[in-house]
Amino acid sequence: MAKGKKKAGGNPGKGEKIFKNLCAVCHSLTSHGTGPALAGLAGTNIAGQDGFSYSGALSGKATLKWTDANMNKWLKSPADFAPGNAMAFAGIPSAKDRLDLIAYLKAT
Fold first, then answer.
1. Own/partner long-range contacts of 44-51 (Cβ < 8 Å, ≥24 apart)
2. CA distance 108 to 105
3. What do you get for the CA distance between the two ends of the chain, in Å?
4. Where is the Cytochrome c domain (predicted)?
5. 65 to 1, 13, 38, 89: CA distances (angstroms)
6. What would you report as the CA-atom Rg of the chain, rounded to the nearest whole angstrom?
7. How far apart are CA 99 and CA 30, in angstroms?
8. What is the pLDDT along the chain (108 residues), one digit of tens a residue?
């Protein structure tokens, strides 16, 4: 996909910048770090990455999928989506930034 092309209502090129600024401290696309690898996340089960130890808060949601709606809720406020989760991140208040980040994650 060409950088900057819109997908899922967001701009993956802008989403990549958001990922690098906000997410890459703990996440990569290809390997687990403090957080799980995120490439190919869209459509998978929540807490479904092999080899990563999820908090009980996310393990309890393991049968749910990372849909656009669930990714949006998580990115807005991880604490509201899964109270007690281990991610030390307040969330992304801008709906547009969340859509851009989701578009980027779906393009990976």
1. 46/70
2. 5
3. 10
4. 10-108
5. 24, 24, 14, 21
6. 13
7. 21
8. 445 444 448 999 999 999 999 999 999 999 999 999 999 999 999 998 889 999 999 999 888 999 999 999 999 999 999 999 999 999 999 999 999 999 999 999
